[in-house]
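Troubleshooting log. The previous structure file for this entry was overwritten by mistake, so regenerating from the original sequence record. Sequence copied from the archived sheet and checked twice against the printout by T.R.
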Amino acid sequence: MSNQFLFVTQVHAARLQHANAPLNARLLRECLQLRHDDAAGRRWSAKNYPGGYTSYDTASRMQQRSPTFAALARCIDRHVRSFARALDFDVDARRLAMTDCWVNIMGRGAMHSGHLHPLSVVSGTYYVRTPQGSAGLKFEDPRLARFMAAPPRRRSARLGNRPWVVVPAQAGRIVLFESWLRHEVPAQRVAGERISISFNYALT
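Regenerated output below.
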């Protein structure tokens, strides 16, 4: 009997279809302008997100506030539908829709500790600007707490057998994952700012 892959965890990473350089340039301008205008968000970030800025607490539905972000959401929708098919989700009677969309700007030393996205189905990130050496998105094997006496994995272990996997951050690319999957962003170690747009999808 051959080995079988059971309970597979899928992550979708690809260049964002139908997005283009002008759209990305507009997103970059609006991300920077939002930080400039969002005094409450800057105060919240200074306390909760040292070295960075996030609009998560103050402007978390940018797809409803900005035509530029709405255009991004339409591009992302196509990928989410494809990802849902790959996961065999039975969503014919309901619709997966973007419920949250917010900006993250990480300066040197900024990090985002391990977390998941409750009450959502699919979550993800679109990378607007990623200076060389920017921190990637680090995923944790959801079975990690149950490994007990399992020996460590070889350095050459296949991606599917590793306890942690880092998906590189690349401008113009999207990463999608199921919202229950624990993930983090390690400390940004380069001087340039890493700018991304995160989002959640839920059944409506």
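The longest strand covers residues 96-106. Archived copy saved in two places this time.
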